Amino acid sequence: MNGRVITDRYELATVIGQGGMGQVWTAYDRRLDRRVAVKLLRPDHMAAATVAEDMRRRFVRECRVTAQVAHPGLVTVHDAGSDGDDLYLVMQYVEGADLSDHLAEHEPYPWQWAVAVAAQMCAVLAAVHAVPIVHRDLKPRNVMVKPDGTITVLDLGVASVLDTDTTRLTHTGSPIGSPAYMAPEQAMGGAVGPYTDLYALGVVLHELLSGNVPFAGSTALGVLHRHLYEPPQPIRRLRPDIPEALEALVLRLLAKDPQHRPSGAQEVYEALAPLLPARGGGPTGPMDPTRPFTRPLAPWPERASAPAAAVRVPPPPTVPPSVAADTGASAAGRPGVAAAVDEVKRLLGEGRITQAVDLLGAILPAAAAEHGEHSHVVRVLRKQYATTLMDDGQYRRALPELRRLAADRAAEAGPADPQTLQYRHDVALCLEQLGEAAEALAEYRAILPYHESARQQPGADPSRAFGIRHRIGHLLLTMGDHSGAYQQLQNLLYDTERTYGPYHPLAGELRRALTHQQQIRGR
């Protein structure tokens, strides 16, 4: 027993997991009288003070975004915050065994079980990639198999918190993640996306079918080198009983080039569906992961079946009654725009970003009807709406708003206008976060000449041009152009040192990235 109580509510009991990221404890929720799991992270033990503070802010944001994803295959987030020097994340306590232990207990793993596990993981990934969220550290230790056969994915968003930039390396020069399950673009420090999780899914599936990961080695660098350059061994050479279609799917998931992998988790699921066990057939036993497919409505032996929870469809966003009352809303229920904007500012000041997003989305049509679609008021609201969506991690919803803003501003002020370029930069960022690497690369390249031209002016700040060049380099890594990426980052390092000196943080980060790439490629 630990005896420590987090925020006078969560009483820690025993450690059930420990690693470089922190610890996971079983705990007792005093307020709701239930068992929970608590993950503790110590930013000050993993990063410098300035980075640790950024990590804390990102932790709150990622927890908020993660909590919005509702799926039975994801662990439920109950609470999050900080307690002293620790960041804490309170989650549902999941009974069962992690997939690594489950594999060890049932090796050789029936291929039907592997298909059933992978199909459930696809359902989870389809939900989180739609947000979009990239797991970045998908592996058997982060997947629980519950007694009823369903799986639960853990640690969603945690790797993203620790890696405060989607492409930034740690102080040791290594990318965040587990080398055995790391996609080539992630191994090289490139931009990650949904395609990165699909590669990890392929590694997990290969491991379930063969008993081993496809690429092993005595050192992390050796493993990453194999991910980058060695083809995986076709699984039927190890287990001839595996269907050819399943072998072909694993090889597609393990493609070095993200563009050669399946287009998304839904496509992988559809490829797995014909291979799923028929109801009443296939291997059975305790903790059978095929059970959700073979007997989806049957109660587990000696367990009472729980009634299905009613599905509640949330209503569309509405304006808070306080705003409507204070603004003299029309008969249609539309508030005055000015008061609604004040309410949005209040919500943002209190950190209630999701409510602010909903309110902005609700008042935009009213503002357009009152002031005109191209009025200054509507543009300001649309800009705030897009910015708030990005702050909330809702890149898919922000993208069309930003594209409209960019087009309107370019028509009015020209393509070189700073605000036009800012909107287009945000478009590229959204595309990158959505996993559209080729489109993001094209957008960054299109706006770079304007920023390079501005950088040449006396007294100009080159940080935006340098930042875009940095993104281009990492996207080139993702697209498999390793030589082009190396040259891009090498040139950026030269300009950074000439402008800021050799001890600037960006210069240090670039040197680590280039050294890391050389180490992997030069083995």
Automatic annotation (TrEMBL):
InterPro entries: Kinase-like_dom_sf (IPR011009), Prot_kinase_dom (IPR000719), Protein_kinase_ATP_BS (IPR017441), Ser/Thr_kinase_AS (IPR008271), TPR-like_helical_dom_sf (IPR011990). It comes from the Bacteria. One of its GO terms (molecular function) is ATP binding. SUPFAM superfamilies: Protein kinase-like (PK-like), TPR-like. Residues 10-276 form the Protein kinase domain. Gene3D superfamilies: Phosphorylase Kinase, domain 1 (3.30.200.20), Tetratricopeptide repeat domain (1.25.40.10), Transferase(Phosphotransferase) domain 1 (1.10.510.10). Residues 321-334 have a biased composition (Low complexity). SMART domains: S_TKc (SM00220). It holds the Pfam family Pkinase. This is non-specific serine/threonine protein kinase. It comes from Streptomyces roseolilacinus.
